[in-house]
Amino acid sequence: MKLFFRESGQGQPLIILHGLFGSSDNWFTLAKTFAESFHVYLVDQRNHGQSPHSDEFNYKLLAEDIYEFIQAHNLKDPIIIGHSMGGKAVMNFAVKYPDVAQKIIVVDIVPKDYPIHHDQILEGLTKMPLADLKSRNEAEEFLGRYVLDNSERQFLLKNLVRNSEGGFAWKLNVAAIDKHIEEIGEGMKYSGTYDKPSLFIKGLKSKYYKTGDEELIKKIFTKAEFVTIDSGHWVQAEKPIEFSQEVLKFIKVN
To answer: Fewest CB atoms within 10 Å of the CB: 7, 20, 173, 247?
Structure first.
């Protein structure tokens, strides 16, 4: 699949992958920082942003999408960052293709199964009366019945766009995400290890890490390093300065 991407900077390739319901736009500001030292590729994963839609949606496909992207752009020794769903895609890719990425950075996600916890979000997205919407304010009011947190609601509404007829549409492939949400909760699809440097960044207030998760990670990612930042799940958005400092410190070490 030919994925949409934005690029900036020069030097060693640095690929950044967003999480579920996100897009490359979410990383635009941080990309400017990283582009001072690296050739940054902000990628929209399938069914997100401006990338193509697909009826199928799972980590094997997302891992293959990463591999195809690297091959298509002839990238040598890329470093890959992935947040949440993007992090799981990176982990699966790294284990299947252990010789391709020079380093990986996984943000606030663990290589394990998670129970479905996006029910309310998906209900709100699927039930949104797109054909009848007159304004974004109407959309926000409707989504507010399902998503109480304002910042989360604004994040989701970034996916609402005007279509060619002047109405509203989702950039997300909501139907495919809803259909395959259990698969997006799954952990590793491949067995094996990744024996190159990897950095796992977790949010101190996040619920995605539990006791024993670091030991689980080390069994698969044998050179894993760990950093905790005082934030929730959206580490890079909540603490961008601390996040970028930790990332650059890790990837600039020979």
So the answer is: 7
